[in-house]
Write a structure and sequence with these properties.
The protein is mainly α. It has a domain at 39-134 and 171-199. Helices cover 81% and strands 2% of the residues. It is built from 9 helices and 2 strands, in the order H-E-H-H-H-H-E-H-H-H-H. It has helices spanning 6-36, 43-53, 55-76, 82-146, 152-187, 209-213, 221-240, 247-312, 317-352, and strands at residues 38-41, 193-196. Helix 4 runs antiparallel to helix 9. The chain is elongated. The N and C termini lie far apart (86 Å).
């Protein structure tokens, strides 16, 4: 019987070896590509990117260009009638306001999604510290039980606290990639990994409520659309008020005008109510930042005292660890308060049709 030669074995093994090397090279390139598609963004950077090239603002700009072209064509057409001219002008005005409103809405979305990532990261740090603390507390409870100076109930409570914080830590870690994917979609970044920086301190609420109320009709798309409807209805009444148009047509036009005026008045009242509520919410959020900052300062003092007691031998290391966790909790509360102020300012911007964050200008 003929046996295979060593050369034949080598030639049969070589394609497998080459294929394995090719696979490893492909995986290496894929890993490098993955590492290269990571973007670090500040909050202003994220908003700027979304406004410049995000899908929503891109669509609104295209709609504005379309409205501009249509208005120009109607103006240049000597056969266009007054209703066509008014409609083109209204379409252009609506497109301009819609673009401005889209920018504010996109800014609000980016602020919310960006801060969701940042808060998930901060919550992860806090929960990690809490898990470490409660792990130590469980060890102490078990040691006290062994020394017969604690009960099984004390151990059970410590175990429950640890389990609860472990679950919160897992939830915080799970929220981060979800929030990052949402922001990537808003920015049009696809599968790019996003790393966020600490957001800057929110600006002061310097705009007076009266200044935001002024000119609201011309800044909100719903009110602009309602005003356009009134204008069109007025024009229809005007062209129907003659002796060659059926009386019924004029009556219908007058009814439509009355309805349009009521809708506009109702829209104004609703918009002012929303603006007032958003302004008050921003004021409350600003005050909460001050309260949280004071709480953080107090917690820092508590930690300093715990460290001094440890040094003096009147406190245990676990007491200092607890104070450190409480300080982290206060820091997280302040970060949340500042984030809520950012979000309140963004919501106020949308309600006012005017940027008060400084991010969308």
């Amino acid at each position: 019987m003929t046996t295979p030669s060593r050369t034949a074995h080598h030639s049969a093994a070589r394609p497998f070896t080459l294929n394995a090397l090719a696979l490893l090279a492909t995986l290496s390139l894929a890993a490098q590509a993955s590492a290269q598609t990571s973007t670090a963004l500040s909050l202003p950077d994220a908003v700027t990117r979304a406004l410049a090239s995000g899908p929503d603002t891109t669509t609104s700009r295209a709609n504005l260009q379309k409205a501009q072209a249509n208005d120009k064509a109607v103006r240049a057409d000597p056969t266009s009638i007054i209703t066509d001219q008014v409609s083109a002008q209204q379409g252009l005005a609506s497109a301009q306001v819609n673009l401005s409103n889209t920018k504010l809405t996109v800014m609000q979305t980016v602020v919310t999604q960006y801060l969701a990532i940042y808060e998930a990261e901060q919550r992860t740090d806090l929960n990690t510290a809490q898990v470490n603390y409660y792990s130590r507390s469980l060890q102490i409870a078990q040691a006290r039980l062994a020394a017969k100076v604690a009960t099984q109930l004390d151990v059970t409570k410590a175990q429950n606290s640890l389990s609860s914080n472990q679950q919160e830590l897992a939830d915080a870690k799970a929220q981060r990639p979800i929030a990052a994917a949402q922001l990537a979609k808003t920015l049009g970044l696809g599968q790019t990994a996003i790393n966020v920086k600490a957001p800057p301190a929110p600006p002061q609420l310097s705009a007076a409520l009266a200044s935001l109320q002024a000119g609201l009709d011309g800044r909100l798309p719903t009110l602009v659309q309602a005003a356009n409807t009134v204008q069109s209805a007025q024009l229809q009444v005007k062209v129907s008020d003659n002796d060659y148009t059926p009386a019924r047509t004029l009556q219908d036009a007058q009814t439509a005008l009355s309805n349009a005026q009521r809708d506009l008045d109702s829209g104004r009242k609703a918009a002012l109510t929303s603006l007032n509520d958003a302004y008050r919410a921003a004021q409350n959020a600003r005050e909460q930042v001050g309260i949280s900052a004071a709480s953080l300062a107090a917690q820092q003092t508590t930690l300093n005292q715990a460290q001094a007691k440890l040094k003096a031998g009147t406190a245990a290391a676990v007491d200092v660890q607890n104070a450190q966790v409480q300080l982290l909790s206060a820091q997280f509360a302040l970060a949340q308060a500042q984030d809520n102020f950012w979000k309140a300012l963004a919501a106020l911007s949308v309600a006012a049709g005017k940027d008060v964050t400084g991010l969308a200008q």
